[in-house]
Amino acid sequence: MRGPRFEIDPWAIRESGLDFDDLGVCEAVFALSNGHIGLRGNLDEGEPADMHGTYLNGLYETRPLPYAETVYGNPEDGQTIINVVDGKLFRILVDDEPLDLRYGQIISHSRALDMRDGVLRRELEWQAPSGRHVRVQTTRLVSFTHRSVAAFEVVIEPVGSPARIVAQSELVANEPVPERSGDPRAAAALAAPLKAELHGHHELRAGLLHSTHMSGIRLAGTMDHTVDGPPGTLTEIESQPDLARLTITTELEAGEQLRIMKVLAYGWSSRRPAAALRDQTEAALASAFRTGWDGLLTDQREYLDRFWEGADIEIDGDPELQQAVRFAVFSVLQAGARAEMRAIPAKGLTGRGYDGHTFWDQEIFVLPALTYTAPDAAADALRWRHSTLDLAQSRAQELGLRGAAFPWRTIRGQECSGYWPAGTAALHVNADIAEAVRRYLTVTQDETFAAGPGIEILVETARLWCSVGHHDAGGAFRIDGVTGPDEYSALADNNVYTNLLAARNLRLAANAVGRHADRAEELGVSDEEVATWRAAAEGMHIPFDAELGVHPQAEGFTRQRRWEFDPEDERPLLLHVPYYLLYSSQVCKQADLVHALYLAGESFSPEQKARDFAFYETITVRDSSLSASIQAIVAVETGHVDLALDYLAESALVDLHDMADNTDGGVHLAAMGGTWLAVVAGFGGMRDHDDGLAFSPRLPGGLDRIAFRLRYRGRRLRVEIGRREATYELLEGEELPIHHHGDWLKLESGAPVTRPLPPPLTPEPARQPPGREPARRAHGERVSVAPDE
Questions:
Q1: Is position 553 within any domain?
Q2: 487 counts as catalytic
Q3: Does residue 39 lie within any of the structural domains?
Q4: pTM score
């Protein structure tokens, strides 16, 4: 863990100076994306770099998955995201000396990711070894309104004396990618993944067309420019199979400027021909140039203004946390805003960590935030899942099951995990997808989706559970031999999280069939099948340890060996301890049973939640960035409000502080979505039931105020939490009934409603494993409150 790296600003991530050792972290944090295309935050001049990265959502290469022994059901091929045609590059020469910050003198250097304008700005003053002094200002954006377009402005100005300037704007394919080794979380590097098909240039425009060797995806990248310089400025353009370059030469007097606008456009498909992709990028460029640089900036700001009106989170009392929470929300938006029928990877489009794969993170951590702030983006992500339903059905058949078995990790929809306790047994991902469908329909009341993709996903996942599980001699429905969310356990019987979410999945499917009888008939659902779903849900076995008074994470878990925690143990444990010991011990990588306390909270009494939470606090090491946010939510509900603040900060700062020492591979998108959850579902106490929204807000001692905004059923809502009271305001839309700590309220536009917060109580202290305590965030003593009755 490296600690603070960036200056504190409520609306920007700002860096002054340049630390070459932190290049990878900054490249991830300063990455720009709209969910469709992503540009890693590399320096404009290209070098030095930790890892070059331009990513197109859904564009991947296939690679074989090697096994020492053949096992039936394991996937033969994997998929990995690749760095495609890089158009971020601007080489600059000053009197024939290349601008490279490893040489000469950096007089000043700063970068700022502006989360209101949606741009990355950079200011550099550099003195070449010859003594020439130049100022370079760059601005880049990935457009939210023109989804295939990225744009740049570069301004070069000599300081103190004239200079000969050469600027080279480039498109480069097959940039060298460094190997990553020793960490199974890192991506597999592929050398030269693209083969050239076409290249060409005209005036200030050039393009390259490539395809992948194995996956058969074709991509086009095209760039065009405007150049504003003094008389005598010359331009020359060229193209080769893997390189297109516009060279601009000029002589600038002190105070004169060379200004370059560059627009990039990308198109890719496994089906469309080269001509169609070429025409697509040409059309995107034409639209962007018609809008112009100022228009692109205006469109970007207006898009984000609309977004923040229904998504902003305000935190008073901790400026760094305010910055980090906004960065989390902005990161979620960047990952999903224009993904449009493509997956949302675990790292977004900020790096090659996890090979660019999508996990259950999408549905359980990222989509809740998008559902309440950008519901169209959430719908698109679920429609992507639905588009892979045929692959999930084929996977279920391969495993000898009915229904659909969605993959543990994937890009296109095929299972890409060669580790069978996850790729085969982590079946909870299917219930996670059903839960995301439930939440989306509850929040939007989208009947078209409900009668289409929604019911199909619910029916096919319900069928899976009835073929996986079985009724025992006593009539209980059991789901044996599965892997739950906690990755330090595997192949256990009756994982509580899995069983409770599966039971809900079964009930949701049965209810959907009742509402859409015609669609159910088309899907071949009979009354007898629905009865089996309801019987399985009703009889779902939820293990309980009566001696300890807690729920085991899975059957028998509380009878396994206790882990001997040592504060000096190296972390994460999975890189230093055999899995056999982890799987057979009472140690949790992340919240599992605690996650069930949140998502299926209606299944537990307040007293039981408190006992379960306290028990699992003592054995959860948080070796996963997914854990802290869930622990924060349940910590608030069980009275440990200041502990929840510690966990919120851990989730929110995981990338800005590089707390896992691997942000160079991309931001932790689940932690970013989890940060939103920790604020809204944690301190806001929000729960989304069929009969409406319920809030049980609490404020930790370390903060003065929290406020957040939501979109819900065509309305915009603002919730503000103070020390003694909470205020609810309907900003837009028809009247809305809500719960406040169990009491009904009716909200009307323009008429805020304020209610007092219940008095606090002090529960028993929660204790973490030695050396695993979260960093303290709250000032003074911890503040605790009673669990809600």
A1: no
A2: yes
A3: yes
A4: 0.96
